[in-house]
Specification:
By secondary structure, the protein is mainly α. The protein has seven helices and no strands.
Length: 121
């Protein structure tokens, strides 16, 4: 059951939806607002694995690019990706890869936390 395509697609869609829900409710401080999207992305890596999380994150980015207001402060579009927050949004992909590799390679929870910290940096 857990290896079925429908199960995988459901998890990917669920976490893409969670990633879309969190960023619009952010605290606008400076050029890059503070949101909890990194926490949701790290949780998705931990819960569903980094490969599925990357797909969820790519869906989130594509939804924002086509015009759905899923980025911080209810913004969307190519201008956001090319603006000051764009590097932060694109940086979710390396965050997922680095933290996912640590989670897959090591069994110790401290290494998981270390990988998440390194990915965030």
């Amino acid at each position: 059951m857990k290896n079925s395509k429908i199960y995988s697609m459901t998890l990917i869609a669920l976490f893409a939806a969670l990633i879309c829900i969190v960023p619009p409710f952010s605290i606008p401080i400076g050029l890059v607002p503070i949101s909890l999207s990194s926490v949701v992305i790290l949780l998705s890596t931990y819960i569903i694995g980094y490969k599925r999380s990357i797909l969820s994150c790519l869906i989130y980015i594509l939804l924002g690019l086509v015009g759905l207001p899923v980025f911080a402060s209810f913004t969307s579009g190519v201008g956001v990706i090319l603006g000051p927050t764009g590097g932060f949004i694109i940086g979710y992909i390396p965050l997922l890869i680095i933290s996912g590799l640590f989670i897959n390679k090591f069994k110790n929870k401290w290494f998981h936390i270390l990988g998440m910290g390194l990915g965030t940096i």
